[in-house]
Design a protein that fits this description.
Length: 351
């Protein structure tokens, strides 16, 4: 009995790999073929990083992600992604109904519809880190206290419109979300609304406008709900060689501050933040890509503080599934215009 169970488990491990490799089958429409076709596709990647900064240096496993995806017929597909880098963390868990090209309905844990950069997988990004404005206003290390890799739980409707020849001119997406991050129940009765509209006026060029309108319950505050509103305007030019991306994001965040005079309640203030980035890269023979980015961020536009980062990097593909990256960043602030420096290198191995 134990031997049979072990053999069964071994087959379950081998069959997905067999299906992914596309090995031709000769059994027709047998039960074996049907099992193969319905197994989830398994993919993933591991990021191994070394970082050196002014005060410290360290090795770490930045990410270790596994993605299971598949289809139910022609109308439904699903995805489940887990990151094992620190402790198992759910990233994506969604089911999508593809009714028409102009109408798709997706539910579960998925990316919010804010920012032109948020839909990118980390292994698709040209640099190792997102710009501070995306980190702080799009739910990665958000000013509102949310750390959710730009994801949330909700329902989204999307589609493509106005097809000319082989290209669509318009793409839309709108959704409602809890607003508290990945696999976290909502802490208020209202739901957050997010939407993105993308225009493709010419081949390889994308113009994007997106927003996120939400509220969060903040305990021990004078206000019942705290605002979390975001607006983003971006553009992207991406062909076989050039990678150009720029975006401006503005945010309103309700923050509760400690008030020693009133210990049972904290005053609620609305903080206005903004930032932008410009990224430029060029691929040589699809193997080497030097990249540069300048980004700007103000956590509070009224206090006179800001940070500006200058990043230069290069990616080199040793193999189709193995990439090496080197990034050099100069971080400057209003108090320290001379800046501090950091160097990072990372190897990404995908499967």
């Amino acid at each position: 009995m134990n031997k049979r169970l072990l053999l069964y488990c071994l087959c379950l491990c081998i069959l997905p790999l067999h299906a992914q490799q596309g090995t031709p089958l000769t059994r027709g429409d047998s039960l074996y073929d049907k099992i193969i076709k319905n197994l989830p596709r398994v993919s993933g990647y591991v990021d191994i990083r070394y970082a050196y900064a002014t005060t410290a240096s360290t090795f770490d496993i930045r990410r270790a992600r596994v993605l299971f995806s598949g289809d139910f017929g022609h109308k439904f597909d699903y995805r489940l992604q887990v990151d094992f880098a620190n402790s198992p963390q759910l990233l994506d868990a969604s089911l999508r109904f593809k009714a028409k090209t102009w109408l798709n309905v997706e539910a579960g844990a998925l990316k919010t519809l804010l920012s032109i950069e948020n839909p990118y997988s980390p292994k698709e990004l040209e640099l190792m880190d997102l710009s501070p404005v995306v980190m702080k206003l799009v739910g990665y290390d958000d000013l509102a206290g949310i750390k959710a890799s730009g994801c949330d739980i909700g329902l989204a409707v999307s589609g493509k419109l106005l097809k000319i020849k082989e290209r669509y001119l318009l793409e839309y997406a709108v959704g409602i979300f809890n607003g508290n991050g990945i696999n976290v129940k909502d802490n208020n009765k209202s739901k957050d609304i997010s939407g993105r509209l993308q225009l493709y006026p010419v081949k390889n060029l994308t113009l994007s406008v997106s927003c996120y309108i939400g509220e969060m319950a903040v305990p021990q505050t004078d206000s019942k709900y705290a605002r979390r509103d975001r607006y983003a305007f971006g553009l992207r030019y991406d062909n076989r060689y050039w990678k150009i991306r720029a975006e401006y994001i503005h945010g309103l965040t309700g923050i509760a501050l400690t008030n020693a005079m009133v210990p049972e309640a904290r005053p609620y203030i609305l903080t206005r933040s903004d930032g932008a980035y410009l990224l430029l890269g060029y691929a040589f023979q699809q193997k080497i890509m030097p990249v540069g980015r300048i980004d700007f961020f103000r956590e509070d536009i009224h206090d006179g503080q800001f940070e500006i980062n200058y990043t230069a990097g290069c990616s080199y593909w040793i193999h189709q599934h193995v990439r090496c990256q080197l990034n050099f960043t100069c971080h400057t602030t209003a108090q320290n215009p001379n800046g501090t420096f950091a160097v990072m290198t990372m190897i990404t191995a995908a499967f």
